Amino acid sequence: MAVDKPADNLKPARMAEADILRGQGGETHQVARGDTPVLTTQQGVPVADDQNSLRAGARGPTLLEDFHFREKIFHFDHERIPERVVHARGFGAHGYFELTESLSDITKADIFQRAGEKTPAFVRFSTVAGNKGSPDLPRDVRGFAVKLYTKEGNWDIVGNNIPVFFIQDAIKFPDLIHAAKQEPDRGFPQAQTAHDNFWDFVSLSPESVNMLLWIMSDRTIPRGFRFMEGFGVHTFRLVNAQGRSTYVKFHWKPKLGMQSVAWNEALKINGADPDFHRRDMWNAIQNGDFPEWELGLQLFDDAFADKFEFDILDATKIIPEETIPIRKVGRLVLDRVVDNFFAETEQVAFCTQNIVPGVDFTNDPLLQGRNFSYLDTQLKRLGSPNFTYLPINAPKCPFAHFQQDGHMAMYNPKGRANYEPNSWGPAQGGPRETPERGFHSVPVVESGEKRRVRAELFADHYSQARQFYLSQAAVEQTHIKDAFVFELSKVETPAIRARVVSHLLNVDDALAKRVAEGIGLDAMPAAAEPARPVIRDLKPSPALSIVGNAPNSFKGRKIGVLVSDGTNADVLKGVMEAVKTEGAMLEFVAPKVGGFTCSAGKKHAAQQKINGGPSVLYDAVVVIPSAEGAKLLAREATARDFVNDAYAHAKFIGYAESAKPLFEKAGLTEMDEGMIALNSAADARRFVEACRKLRFWQREARVHAV
Ligand code: HDD
């Protein structure tokens, strides 16, 4: 029978040693003592019991009087803020920018004056289309947003890992994003462009074609944030003390070189570890292996802008590095993870209009529109114009202004003056303008008819797409073809598929034919009519290939070592040493996560159990179970997948002869040069050196029949 009186085990029972409370279900709870902070309400009232709400009787109703319960639930109910309308899924880290050469002749920006000086930075990487909880490896552009806390204010370079964009005018942005995200009637697909609406929109917007080539390339399935380039995309200006303006494009070059995964691998990573990119960055920073990029500038003047074959205000075009070389002027190092994801990564508010004296905008119509959008969106997201006071957004230099009040006003002016000019004198009158140090816009003369129009040079949508395609290595061209075929195979409307191919005919005949064949198009469409009739054959730009610019080092990468009890101790030691010497990492994947005992009788901890550590999580694999272990693993489907996937994804595979039964059961009977037998420490070294090529791409053609 139910009783209306507290049972004995509901009374807080003080445990002798540990200061433990026992809750209703007999579970235990720490009680504050010594240095442990006291749990309080938001008002600072110490809380006696956080396990039970206030009730009228043990089985009676909860009382409205329970202010602690109400406060706790009230706050919880309001925890979520609107996610970003784009770039919702992101990951941020702190670090610094260090200038390596003074640019005082080109800009008066304080950050660029003194070589060797460090400026605090916060960087948030993101995908674009997916919601906050979407996986890290959809095919998507990655955001690369950098906040630099300079001594003369915050400067945000809100860029991407691709130097061009889909559209030329910001007025098209809502259409682009609506088309890319989930379709409005069904609410799917999540985090992917492989659907009708996206391809419908872009195939009706030829200005997107250059970007389409970039997003169908391996750039949109990066191995990690650490292995991506970043770009400011637009042309900006740097302005020196004399007021002279130089055009500039910003580039971030990863120290570890660029690297991407294979598409089939990306699909599987999303299941195996949806946090693959954030975990990679978190682990790298926590291990002291700080991700680093060089800041490169392409600097040019009006004379170049006038003679360049494209408009420097057109964000769908690049200036090839071979035309304007990149000048490396500093490095960006990320050396600290956030203390709190929400407070920093979620609340950070990047705004393209956050620039500093010595930097200025150009008339790029995409940039001009962005300058409105970012400030506006932060108000929606963060709920108050005082978002600039949040520690992650506040400048680290002194700031003083007369903006006041609003929700969550945290820093309020003292005294009487909240306007200027005022006559309250230096002590009480508040801050004053400073014409010498203050921000001045470059005094460009502007004139023209008020019309909705685009400049003529914006009209060539194909030449640079062709240049990008022809600058890729053969294996990269195949990946681009495969990506088009994959995406268009998810498009249900045949006319949209054909329309995309009609654009590809203006990019490269062979590509268009391969894609048409891949999707089984019945008849080749006519080429899309270009707005600008002449499609030019531009010189390929070798800098645009990932494979052609491979790092020749395996540093920062990770090997998955499939082991079992009895794994040969000498080979194991050889692999561990070679990996360490290279500056790479390894993880043991074993039948049991508790670990394995090698042939020398030593117990090693494993990082993954075989069914949670598929080979897609690694850049290369080593398969060295003992003969007994191989027999066991041969009967385990996930172990067979481990070697099969590593093979299909063109990974280098180091193996012991004893692993052969596993290979045979997995159907891997043909060995190739990407598979290296490991019998000694010297073999292990050779293997890790072979891994510097990152992938054994020659194998790929053999594993894809359709
Ligand atoms: Fe944007 C976020 C990059 C065009 C409007 N954008 C956002 C972020 C990045 C970019 C990296 C995430 C920032 C963060 O981590 O918080 N966006 C770009 C680039 C573009 C671009 C490189 C083209 C060159 N964006 C663009 C246009 C518009 C916007 C044309 C609107 C007219 N973007 C936004 C936004 C977002 C945003 C709605 C969503 C969340 C936010 O701003 O803070 O305002």
UniProtKB/TrEMBL annotation:
Keywords, in A-Z order: Heme, Hydrogen peroxide, Iron, Metal-binding, Oxidoreductase, Peroxidase
Cofactor: heme
GO BP, sorted A to Z: hydrogen peroxide catabolic process; response to oxidative stress
GO MF term (any one): heme binding
Lineage: superkingdom: Bacteria
Free-text function comment from the UniProt entry: Decomposes hydrogen peroxide into water and oxygen; serves to protect cells from the toxic effects of hydrogen peroxide.
Designated name of the protein: Catalase
Active site: H87, N160
Every Catalase core domain range: 40-428
